Amino acid sequence: MLSLGYNKLFAKNSDGEYLQRIARDTALVGIDYYGLVKTHLGVYANYTGTRYDDLAQTEQTGRYTLFDAVVNYDITNEFSTYFKVENATDKRYQEVLNYGTYGRSFRVGLHAKF
After folding, report:
1. Which domain holds residue 90?
2. Sign of the C-alpha dihedral, residues 79, 84, 40, 36?
3. CA distance 87 to 111
4. Which helix (H) or strand (E) holds 20?
5. Domain tally, the chain
6. 1 within 8 A of 34, measured Cβ to Cβ
7. Is 92 helix (H, G, I), strand (E, B) or coil?
8. How far apart are CA 80 and CA 96, in angstroms?
9. With contact defined as beta carbons under 8 Å apart, do 43 and 30 qualify?
């Protein structure tokens, strides 16, 4: 399954100024594969466009694209496990000026449904 998304946002305050730290452009591309028995594979790219840290729109936090991947495996109808990689390319980016974010991260987990 292919997922595509794009958002164009014009978020302004009551004075008509663009809000800080809100990207005007964001996009998502995702590919999910369910063709293996009990297994789901997913790869995703998330783009965040230009954002500014101040209302004057002079301090840019940058544009970036993050890549994620996930593998889910159904153990039973009630239990499944997953392995997820976030920011797979270890991209350095910031959501708030001069405050870095996590680099590449890995998660392993167990889901239970009752």
Report:
1. 2-112
2. negative
3. 22
4. none
5. 1
6. yes
7. coil
8. 35
9. yes
- Side by side, the strands of the sheet bearing 105-112 are 2-8, 25-36, 39-48, 64-74, 79-86, 105-112
Q: Return the structure tokens found at 73.
A: 């495996």
Q: What is the identity of the amino acid at 24?
A: R
CA–CA dist 73, 76 (Å, integer): 9
Q: How would you classify residue 98: left for phi > 0, otherwise alpha for psi between -120 and 50, otherwise beta? A: left
Facing residues of 61 across strands? none
Helices and strands of the chain, counted as H and E runs: 0, 8
Neighbours of 58 (CB within 10 A): 8
In order along its 114 residues, the chain shows pLDDT tens digits of 999 999 999 988 898 888 888 899 999 999 999 999 999 999 999 999 988 888 888 888 889 999 999 999 999 999 999 999 999 999 988 888 888 788 999 999 999 998
